[in-house]
Amino acid sequence: MSAPDLFSSAEGDPGAGPTAVPLAVRMRPTTLAQVRGQREVLTTGSPLRRLIEGGGGRAGPVSAILWGPPGTGKTTLAHLVASAAGREFVELSAVTAGVKDVRAVMEQADRARALYDRQTVLFLDEIHRFTKAQQDALLPGVENGRVVLVAATTENPSFSVIAPLLSRSLLITLTSLSDKDIEEVIDAALHAPEGLAGAYTLDGAAREHLIRVSGGDARRALTALEAAAGVADDVRGVRGDAGPTEIDLAATERAIAQAAVRYDRAGDQHYDVASALIKSMRGSDVDAAVHYLARMLEAGEDPRFIARRIVIAASEDVGMADPSALQTAVAAMHAVAQIGMPEARIILAQAVIHNALAPKSNAAYVAINEAIGDVRAGKGTGVPPHLRGSGYAGAARLGHGDGYSYPHDQPDGVAAQQYLPSDLHTRTDYYRPTERGFEARLQERWSWLKTRLGRPST
């Protein structure tokens, strides 16, 4: 790798013509003011902003690891860090680079500092693909300040980046862009001289579709917009239209080979489709449940919202008939938050299918609702004295804990004593197990337990 290759910061020559470089590259922000999203990590005085603006204090600039989904600005922010104070910029990809390349960067960074007093920013994309040995090779240069490392990853650095490198770097979490951010990115591309320069108009339905399919990924939105402009050009050529070229929904759909989903995340259909997903899982129709899951995902619904609904359904509708459904749903919720789209669709599908196939019971749901109803109605006298806390001075004088039978002292692990308040002890029946799935076994045990506790069994 030669020095010009290492230190080249251009990804194409914008002067070679507007079609020579992809729109997403031409629209890459060159100043902080042009950056969309990431307001929390770019707030005035934040470590990342100070790094970009060239402030590093007496200790100098620190390295940073940018963690976030694709298209959230990791490469852009790395370029902005490099542009501060005239730093050199070197970009490596962990997919193709090795230890030899890292060492070459360090050597040329030393020469740049010695000859030109210029600091080097090393942008390492997909650092999670580097092995431990390759990451170890970065340590001396980062620790001694030979380079400012700006590394990007879509995977949790706690699991994919070695601890010594993590401890020497700022960990900055980036988030997917909001719909408003994506809309601003699209509008800027339509009008900016380096973008489409006002040669196209975008109708409302096409705009909504682009925002929806982008999934918070600015690069994806711009790539789709550029493809849609190409389709619109072809249509215009056939019709011989004059004036700005209109990009409509049909052109956008053709460009990204994906039909627009008739689904409004902020309107009635948001609730209708979510309701249909829940009711299909409750009704045990796996195909219908997967269909509505796909509708929500293709409409750009937040996968975390879907995961939360699945967790609720696993407890409300499956319950103790299959307790493992809740385990699957909770695991899916955490996995989706860590992984994101598009892989999250597989995890959500597994959880939806588990819920739909599982035997159903709402006994736990009914039990807590009835208990809350009694509490709100003022039922339930004081806690029985033998159940009250006895670990404080004066408790014995009040008789707290007297007569309490420790269940583990009994051969069957159950002590025959009163637990409910007196006014509820003999007439309360909140939990009524069904005969479905695992709960059928619980029904037999709960009946025996109530008899053992001296309570009527239903």
Write structural notes for this entry.
The chain is of the alpha/beta class. It has helices spanning 3-7, 23-26, 47-52, 74-83, 99-116, 132-143, 157-160, 163-167, 179-191, 204-214, 218-239, 249-256, 268-282, 286-298, 303-318, 324-339, 344-357, 363-376, 439-452; strands at 63-67, 88-93, 120-125, 147-153, 169-173, 200-202, 245-247. The strands form two sheets. Strands 2-3-4-1-5 form a five-stranded parallel β-sheet. It has a two-stranded parallel ribbon with strand order 6-7. Strand 3, helix 6 (132-143) and strand 4 (147-153) form a beta-alpha-beta unit. Helix 10 (204-214) packs parallel to helix 12 (249-256).
Largest sheet: 5 strands, parallel
The proportion of residues forming helix, as a percent range, comes to 40-55%
Overall geometric form: extended
Instruction: Write down the overall mean pLDDT.
Output: 84
Look at the helices and sheets and give the structural class: alpha/beta
End-to-end distance? 80 Å
Low-confidence stretches: 1-19
Helix count, DSSP H or I runs of 4 or more residues? 19
Strand element count: 7
Q: State which percent range the strand residues make up.
A: 5-15%
Q: Report the C-alpha radius of gyration, rounded.
A: 31 Å
In the sheet with the most strands, the strands line up as 2-3-4-1-5
Order of helices and strands: HHHEHEHEHEHHEHEHHEHHHHHHHH
